[in-house]
Write a structure and sequence with these properties.
Elements: E1 12-16, H1 32-45, E2 49-52, E3 56-57, E4 69-73, H2 80-92, E5 96-101, H3 111-118, E6 131-132, E7 155-159, E8 165-170, H4 185-201, E9 205-208, H5 246-258, E10 265-268, H6 275-279, E11 289-290, H7 293-296, H8 302-318, E12 324-326, H9 335-338, H10 342-358, E13 362-366, H11 387-391, H12 437-440, H13 447-460, E14 470-471, E15 478-483, E16 487-492, E17 498-501, E18 505-509, E19 520-523, E20 527-532
Parallel strand pairs: 1-2, 1-13, 2-5, 5-9, 9-10, 10-11, 12-13
Antiparallel strand pairs: 3-4, 6-8, 7-8, 14-15, 15-16, 16-20, 17-19, 18-20
Helix pairs in contact: 1-2, 4-5, 10-13
């Protein structure tokens, strides 16, 4: 399949959670050298690009999304030389590389924030962040009632070395992640320079963390007492998300990306209300893609999935943008577990994968989904590291369950993630050897082989990737559509086998689909199939 106009319009992009992908030196944490060593496996899988989660200098209060230095690699992950070597090797294999940029907040260990803490109220150093005086007697109450995404208030009060209370600063996430003040031109200039630093090194684009954040309502009004401070909620009623001012930032960033050859891509993590709001980020002079979280959060229901697909395609088409599809990432429960867990969850996940890979646009895959990994729901409490765990009063276990290191081979931990005898930063479950890449590679019917075959076909067949689709008549609970020229995708979401009028050759199936006979295809419960018409 030839890429059309822009490589990212029909790409299969593989997300790497750096800390959990491959450990080259035995310290228990994944690193850039480990990724470079494993790139041949990703080339064999058939991905077009990789996206790296943050590897910058960071205290890791929030898995690296608390950045202390935007222009260097944290020593636990390697060096800038390791990054350059990884990029060169990836490009040599025809794999592009996207990196995270985190513009809503920095780490409290960032040089700027240290300067702000040392400065007097009203000083220049404080203007780069959102500092405010408190309310009530002696300013003892927060400036407003905004809530942190990780639980608790979104404000923390500074104290002088002698204990004297001072101003409050805003952090929509952890207290160690103070929010930048994007009304300050210096913040704009800094991120312009950060983008150019990495573009000059040759990266193929950026995934923008909390892309719907950054700009806050200047009136900073209270929110309703029952309002949820939740990325998954996607509510436009929150005065610190999806404000109109973010769009001018992205017009500026798009101009910077366009200065560079090679078709650099800008991808938004924008948890906003609906597909029409998402599409505003994708207008011709703004960003190139946005994650389709409405699709990710859709239930295993044919009617709801069809509605999301139709609305997504229509909204993005209206602004000339391609649509993305995603089932898992480092912030949500893995879809094997989300779809019910166990054999049923895996069966549904495999079918959902063929549906996703058959849709028009590009796809984002999360490391380990090609192995059928489930969420690890029983991590010991003393091993949990997501800040949500403590901030929620230990009521929300957070996102560590989808971040457990990958099993590459062997029958005991660390299953090839690191050298024998090394201890991964999160415990790996017993029995994961059977899910490892080594145990699935070349095994007919394995989830790894399903992904590999489907990705190979997706690249080969002109009908797949970017383009259009047309729904075909199907029984209740079945999604059935055609991609021109000559590929049909059928997904049975019901709990029973169905007969489908479907002449043609079976190209790939997520389960034991019967060959078309007499113009009919027997499609078992919760399976999917691609047909050549």
């Amino acid at each position: 399949m030839e890429h059309q106009t822009h490589w990212w319009r029909d790409a299969a992009i593989y997300q790497i959670y750096v800390r959990s992908f491959a450990d080259s030196n035995g310290d228990g944490e994944g690193d850039l050298a480990g990724i470079r060593e494993r790139l041949p496996h990703l080339a064999e899988l058939g991905v077009d690009a990789i996206w790296l989660t943050p590897f910058y200098v960071s205290p890791l209060a929030d898995g690296g999304y608390d950045v202390a230095d935007y222009r260097d690699v944290d020593p636990r992950f390697g060096t800038l030389e390791d990054f350059d070597a990884l990029l060169e090797t990836a490009h040599g294999m025809g794999i592009r590389l996207i990196i995270d940029v985190v513009p809503n907040h920095s780490s409290s260990a960032h040089r700027w924030f240290k300067e702000a803490v040392a400065a007097e109220p009203g000083g220049h150093a404080r203007s780069r962040y959102v500092f405010r005086d408190g309310k009530g007697p002696d300013g003892e109450e927060p400036p407003n009632n905004w809530k942190s995404i990780f639980g608790g208030p979104a404000w923390t009060r500074l104290k002088r070395p002698d204990g004297t209370p001072e101003q409050w600063y805003l952090h929509l996430f952890d207290p160690e992640q103070p929010d930048f003040d994007w009304t300050n031109q210096e913040v704009h200039d800094e991120f312009d320079d950060v983008l150019r630093f990495w573009l000059d090194r040759g990266v193929d684009g950026f995934r923008i963390d909390v892309a719907h954040g950054m700009v806050k309502d200047p009136a900073m009004p209270d929110i309703a007492e029952d309002a949820k401070a939740d990325m998954l909620d996607g509510s436009t009623s929150l005065p610190y998300f999806d404000q109109d001012g973010v769009h001018e930032i992205y017009r500026r960033w798009a101009r910077i990306a366009a200065e560079y050859p090679g078709d650099r891509a800008l991808v938004a993590e924008a948890w906003v209300e609906d597909a029409q709001r998402v599409a505003r980020y994708l207008r011709p002079d703004e960003l190139h893609q946005a994650f389709n979280f409405e699709y990710l959060t859709a239930p295993w229901d044919a009617g709801r999935l069809r509605e999301v697909i139709d609305v997504s395609l229509a909204a993005n088409s209206a602004v000339g943008a391609t649509t993305t599809w995603v089932l898992s990432n480092h912030d949500v429960t893995r879809h094997v577990t989300r779809f019910g867990g166990g054999e049923q969850g895996l069966r549904r996940a495999r079918a959902a994968t063929l549906l996703m890979l058959g849709l028009p646009g590009s796809v984002y895959l999360y490391q380990g989904e090609e192995l059928g990994l489930p969420e690890v729901t029983d991590l010991p409490e003393d091993s949990l590291q997501d800040p949500t765990w403590e901030r929620s009063g230990r009521t929300d276990r957070g996102r560590d369950g989808c971040r457990v290191p990958l099993p590459w081979g062997g029958d005991q931990a660390p299953y090839g993630f690191g050298p024998e005898g090394s201890v991964p930063w999160l415990p790996m479950p017993q029995g994961w050897g059977a899910l490892s890449r080594a145990d699935q590679r070349g095994v007919e019917g394995s989830t790894l082989e399903l992904y590999t075959k489907a990705l190979r076909l997706r690249r080969k067949l002109d009908a797949l990737g970017d383009g259009s689709m047309a729904w075909l008549d199907a029984p209740d609970g079945v999604l059935y559509f055609e991609r021109e020229p000559g590929v049909r995708v059928a997904v049975n979401l019901t709990g029973e086998a169905v007969e489908l009028a479907a002449d043609g050759e079976v190209l790939v199936a997520s389960g034991p689909a019967g060959e078309p006979a007499g113009g009919a295809l027997t499609l078992p419960a919760e399976t999917a199939v691609w047909l050549r018409g």
